[in-house]
Design brief:
The chain is of the alpha+beta class. It is about 25% helix and about 25% strand. It contains 5 helices and 9 strands; from the N terminus they run ββαααβββαβαβββ. It has a 9-stranded mixed beta sheet, with helices on both faces. Strand 4 and strand 5 form a beta hairpin. It is globular, with a radius of gyration of 16 Å. The structure holds coenzyme A (COA). The site of coenzyme A (COA) has 26 residues, from helix 2, strand 5, helix 4, strand 6 and helix 5.
Length: about 210
Amino acid sequence: MLAHAEPGAGAADGVVGTLNRPDGPALTVRTVTDADVEGLDALFQGLSTKDRRHRFFGLCHPAREFLQQLTRAEDEGGYRLVAAVAGPGGALVAEAGYAILPDGDGEFALTVAPGWQGWRLGHRLLGAVVAAAAARGVPNLQADIMAGNTRMLALLRRRGYITLAREELSEIRIAIGAAQPARRRQPGNAEPLGPLVSGTLASCAPAA
Ligand SMILES: CC(C)(COP(=O)(O)OP(=O)(O)OC[C@H]1O[C@@H](n2cnc3c(N)ncnc32)[C@H](O)[C@@H]1OP(=O)(O)O)[C@@H](O)C(=O)NCCC(=O)NCCS
Protein backbone atom coordinates (compact mmCIF):
# COMPACT_ATOMS: atom_id res chain seq x y z
CA MET A 1 0.00 0.00 0.00
CA LEU A 2 1.37 3.38 -1.01
CA ALA A 3 0.33 6.37 1.04
CA HIS A 4 0.61 10.08 0.44
CA ALA A 5 0.26 12.47 3.33
CA GLU A 6 -2.40 14.96 2.44
CA PRO A 7 -5.07 14.25 -0.14
CA GLY A 8 -5.37 17.20 -2.42
CA ALA A 9 -2.01 18.63 -1.42
CA GLY A 10 -0.69 17.78 -4.88
CA ALA A 11 2.34 15.53 -5.05
CA ALA A 12 4.78 16.50 -7.77
CA ASP A 13 3.35 13.90 -10.16
CA GLY A 14 -0.23 14.62 -9.10
CA VAL A 15 -0.54 11.17 -7.52
CA VAL A 16 -2.53 11.28 -4.29
CA GLY A 17 -2.75 7.57 -3.58
CA THR A 18 -3.02 3.98 -4.68
CA LEU A 19 -5.96 1.66 -4.16
CA ASN A 20 -5.90 -2.10 -4.35
CA ARG A 21 -8.80 -4.41 -5.03
CA PRO A 22 -8.32 -8.00 -3.90
CA ASP A 23 -9.46 -9.44 -7.23
CA GLY A 24 -8.34 -6.75 -9.63
CA PRO A 25 -5.51 -4.48 -10.71
CA ALA A 26 -4.22 -1.64 -8.53
CA LEU A 27 -5.49 1.86 -9.20
CA THR A 28 -3.51 5.08 -9.18
CA VAL A 29 -5.48 8.10 -7.98
CA ARG A 30 -4.09 11.36 -9.35
CA THR A 31 -5.17 14.83 -10.36
CA VAL A 32 -6.54 15.12 -13.88
CA THR A 33 -4.35 16.42 -16.71
CA ASP A 34 -5.16 17.66 -20.21
CA ALA A 35 -3.93 14.29 -21.53
CA ASP A 36 -7.00 12.67 -19.93
CA VAL A 37 -9.59 13.86 -22.46
CA GLU A 38 -9.61 10.53 -24.33
CA GLY A 39 -9.65 8.55 -21.09
CA LEU A 40 -12.62 10.51 -19.78
CA ASP A 41 -14.35 10.08 -23.14
CA ALA A 42 -13.90 6.29 -22.90
CA LEU A 43 -15.02 6.24 -19.24
CA PHE A 44 -18.27 8.06 -20.08
CA GLN A 45 -18.78 5.98 -23.26
CA GLY A 46 -18.72 2.87 -21.07
CA LEU A 47 -21.56 4.00 -18.80
CA SER A 48 -24.95 2.34 -18.85
CA THR A 49 -27.90 4.44 -19.98
CA LYS A 50 -29.00 4.80 -16.37
CA ASP A 51 -25.59 5.84 -15.10
CA ARG A 52 -25.23 8.36 -17.95
CA ARG A 53 -28.58 9.86 -17.03
CA HIS A 54 -27.55 10.03 -13.37
CA ARG A 55 -24.28 11.75 -14.20
CA PHE A 56 -25.41 14.07 -17.00
CA PHE A 57 -29.20 14.31 -16.53
CA GLY A 58 -29.73 13.19 -20.09
CA LEU A 59 -28.89 10.40 -22.47
CA CYS A 60 -26.30 12.34 -24.46
CA HIS A 61 -22.60 11.68 -24.28
CA PRO A 62 -20.78 14.84 -23.13
CA ALA A 63 -19.27 17.10 -25.78
CA ARG A 64 -15.51 17.33 -26.20
CA GLU A 65 -15.51 20.90 -24.84
CA PHE A 66 -17.01 19.61 -21.61
CA LEU A 67 -14.34 16.90 -21.34
CA GLN A 68 -11.61 19.48 -21.93
CA GLN A 69 -13.14 21.70 -19.28
CA LEU A 70 -13.02 18.82 -16.79
CA THR A 71 -9.29 18.49 -17.40
CA ARG A 72 -8.78 22.22 -16.72
CA ALA A 73 -10.40 22.02 -13.28
CA GLU A 74 -7.52 23.51 -11.31
CA ASP A 75 -6.94 26.35 -13.80
CA GLU A 76 -10.47 27.47 -13.03
CA GLY A 77 -10.22 27.16 -9.23
CA GLY A 78 -11.69 23.67 -8.99
CA TYR A 79 -10.21 20.24 -8.42
CA ARG A 80 -10.58 16.87 -10.10
CA LEU A 81 -9.17 13.43 -9.53
CA VAL A 82 -9.08 10.42 -11.81
CA ALA A 83 -8.48 6.79 -10.86
CA ALA A 84 -6.53 4.88 -13.50
CA VAL A 85 -5.47 1.26 -13.74
CA ALA A 86 -1.85 1.38 -12.57
CA GLY A 87 0.81 1.28 -15.26
CA PRO A 88 1.46 3.09 -18.51
CA GLY A 89 -1.66 3.93 -20.49
CA GLY A 90 -3.97 2.47 -17.84
CA ALA A 91 -7.67 3.08 -18.48
CA LEU A 92 -9.54 5.60 -16.35
CA VAL A 93 -12.10 3.85 -14.16
CA ALA A 94 -13.37 6.84 -12.17
CA GLU A 95 -13.38 10.62 -11.94
CA ALA A 96 -14.44 12.95 -9.15
CA GLY A 97 -14.12 16.64 -8.54
CA TYR A 98 -15.71 20.04 -8.27
CA ALA A 99 -15.90 23.35 -10.10
CA ILE A 100 -16.17 26.64 -8.23
CA LEU A 101 -19.57 28.33 -8.10
CA PRO A 102 -20.06 32.11 -7.96
CA ASP A 103 -20.92 31.90 -4.23
CA GLY A 104 -17.57 30.22 -3.42
CA ASP A 105 -18.97 26.74 -2.87
CA GLY A 106 -17.95 23.92 -5.20
CA GLU A 107 -20.24 21.96 -7.51
CA PHE A 108 -19.19 18.33 -7.37
CA ALA A 109 -19.82 15.23 -9.44
CA LEU A 110 -18.28 11.79 -9.70
CA THR A 111 -18.38 8.72 -11.89
CA VAL A 112 -17.24 5.16 -11.26
CA ALA A 113 -17.07 2.77 -14.23
CA PRO A 114 -19.60 -0.07 -14.09
CA GLY A 115 -16.98 -2.78 -13.44
CA TRP A 116 -15.65 -0.83 -10.45
CA GLN A 117 -18.88 0.12 -8.71
CA GLY A 118 -19.69 -1.32 -5.30
CA TRP A 119 -16.07 -1.35 -4.06
CA ARG A 120 -16.28 1.91 -2.12
CA LEU A 121 -14.27 3.69 -4.77
CA GLY A 122 -16.96 6.39 -4.83
CA HIS A 123 -16.62 6.83 -1.06
CA ARG A 124 -12.85 7.11 -1.25
CA LEU A 125 -12.86 9.59 -4.10
CA LEU A 126 -15.56 11.77 -2.57
CA GLY A 127 -13.58 11.79 0.69
CA ALA A 128 -10.47 12.92 -1.16
CA VAL A 129 -12.38 15.62 -3.02
CA VAL A 130 -13.93 16.93 0.21
CA ALA A 131 -10.47 16.98 1.82
CA ALA A 132 -9.08 18.92 -1.13
CA ALA A 133 -11.95 21.41 -0.92
CA ALA A 134 -11.35 21.85 2.82
CA ALA A 135 -7.63 22.42 2.24
CA ARG A 136 -8.52 25.12 -0.30
CA GLY A 137 -11.05 26.88 1.92
CA VAL A 138 -14.10 25.83 -0.09
CA PRO A 139 -16.86 25.72 2.55
CA ASN A 140 -19.41 23.38 0.95
CA LEU A 141 -19.84 21.11 -2.03
CA GLN A 142 -23.20 21.15 -3.81
CA ALA A 143 -24.73 18.88 -6.42
CA ASP A 144 -27.96 18.06 -8.22
CA ILE A 145 -28.85 14.42 -7.63
CA MET A 146 -31.65 12.54 -9.32
CA ALA A 147 -34.12 11.27 -6.76
CA GLY A 148 -33.75 7.73 -8.12
CA ASN A 149 -29.96 7.69 -7.78
CA THR A 150 -30.00 5.43 -4.73
CA ARG A 151 -26.28 4.61 -4.76
CA MET A 152 -25.27 8.24 -4.77
CA LEU A 153 -27.80 9.10 -2.09
CA ALA A 154 -26.54 6.19 0.03
CA LEU A 155 -23.01 7.46 -0.38
CA LEU A 156 -24.04 10.99 0.61
CA ARG A 157 -26.21 9.86 3.51
CA ARG A 158 -23.20 8.26 5.11
CA ARG A 159 -21.36 11.58 4.90
CA GLY A 160 -24.32 13.70 5.98
CA TYR A 161 -25.93 16.19 3.61
CA ILE A 162 -28.57 18.91 3.63
CA THR A 163 -31.22 19.40 0.97
CA LEU A 164 -31.11 22.90 -0.54
CA ALA A 165 -33.96 22.54 -3.04
CA ARG A 166 -36.24 19.96 -4.51
CA GLU A 167 -37.23 20.07 -8.18
CA GLU A 168 -40.57 18.34 -8.46
CA LEU A 169 -39.97 14.73 -7.47
CA SER A 170 -37.14 13.98 -9.86
CA GLU A 171 -34.16 15.93 -8.60
CA ILE A 172 -32.72 17.37 -5.40
CA ARG A 173 -30.06 19.99 -4.80
CA ILE A 174 -27.87 18.94 -1.89
CA ALA A 175 -24.83 20.27 -0.05
CA ILE A 176 -22.17 18.62 2.07
CA GLY A 177 -19.84 20.52 4.35
CA ALA A 178 -16.20 20.57 3.31
CA ALA A 179 -14.56 22.78 5.94
CA GLN A 180 -16.10 20.67 8.71
CA PRO A 181 -17.30 17.53 6.98
CA ALA A 182 -20.17 15.88 8.79
CA ARG A 183 -19.77 12.14 9.20
CA ARG A 184 -22.97 10.69 10.44
CA ARG A 185 -22.93 7.05 11.39
CA GLN A 186 -25.91 5.14 10.10
CA PRO A 187 -27.30 2.16 11.98
CA GLY A 188 -25.62 -0.95 10.64
CA ASN A 189 -22.84 1.05 9.00
CA ALA A 190 -20.24 0.59 11.68
CA GLU A 191 -17.33 0.42 9.28
CA PRO A 192 -15.22 3.60 9.40
CA LEU A 193 -14.49 5.36 6.13
CA GLY A 194 -10.76 4.69 6.56
CA PRO A 195 -7.89 6.48 4.83
CA LEU A 196 -9.17 8.88 2.20
CA VAL A 197 -7.39 7.58 -0.85
CA SER A 198 -4.79 4.88 -0.33
CA GLY A 199 -5.77 1.45 0.86
CA THR A 200 -7.63 -1.66 -0.14
CA LEU A 201 -11.07 -1.49 -1.71
CA ALA A 202 -13.73 -3.76 -0.26
CA SER A 203 -17.01 -4.80 -1.78
CA CYS A 204 -20.11 -3.16 -0.30
CA ALA A 205 -22.64 -4.95 -2.50
CA PRO A 206 -25.21 -6.92 -0.54
CA ALA A 207 -24.26 -10.56 -0.22
CA ALA A 208 -26.07 -12.70 -2.78
C1 LIG B 1 -22.89 6.83 -7.64
C2 LIG B 1 -21.54 6.16 -7.86
C3 LIG B 1 -20.48 7.24 -8.05
C4 LIG B 1 -21.21 5.31 -6.62
O1 LIG B 1 -19.90 4.78 -6.79
P1 LIG B 1 -19.50 3.39 -6.08
O2 LIG B 1 -18.02 3.30 -6.08
O3 LIG B 1 -20.25 2.28 -6.66
O4 LIG B 1 -20.04 3.68 -4.60
P2 LIG B 1 -19.65 2.93 -3.28
O5 LIG B 1 -19.12 1.56 -3.57
O6 LIG B 1 -18.77 3.85 -2.52
O7 LIG B 1 -21.08 2.73 -2.57
C5 LIG B 1 -22.00 3.78 -2.46
C6 LIG B 1 -23.24 3.28 -1.77
O8 LIG B 1 -24.03 2.50 -2.69
C7 LIG B 1 -24.30 1.22 -2.12
N1 LIG B 1 -24.17 0.18 -3.15
C8 LIG B 1 -23.10 -0.12 -3.86
N2 LIG B 1 -23.33 -1.15 -4.70
C9 LIG B 1 -24.61 -1.52 -4.48
C10 LIG B 1 -25.46 -2.51 -5.03
N3 LIG B 1 -25.04 -3.36 -5.97
N4 LIG B 1 -26.73 -2.60 -4.57
C11 LIG B 1 -27.16 -1.73 -3.65
N5 LIG B 1 -26.40 -0.77 -3.08
C12 LIG B 1 -25.15 -0.67 -3.49
C13 LIG B 1 -23.23 1.00 -1.10
O9 LIG B 1 -23.65 0.08 -0.12
C14 LIG B 1 -22.96 2.37 -0.59
O10 LIG B 1 -23.89 2.71 0.42
P3 LIG B 1 -23.45 2.59 1.98
O11 LIG B 1 -22.32 3.52 2.18
O12 LIG B 1 -24.67 2.99 2.71
O13 LIG B 1 -23.06 1.16 2.19
C15 LIG B 1 -21.57 5.21 -9.10
O14 LIG B 1 -22.63 4.30 -8.94
C16 LIG B 1 -21.71 5.96 -10.41
O15 LIG B 1 -20.72 6.35 -11.03
N6 LIG B 1 -22.97 6.16 -10.88
C17 LIG B 1 -23.21 6.86 -12.17
C18 LIG B 1 -22.86 8.35 -12.12
C19 LIG B 1 -23.53 9.03 -10.96
O16 LIG B 1 -24.66 8.72 -10.58
N7 LIG B 1 -22.84 10.02 -10.37
C20 LIG B 1 -23.40 10.76 -9.26
C21 LIG B 1 -24.10 11.99 -9.69
S1 LIG B 1 -23.00 13.30 -9.76
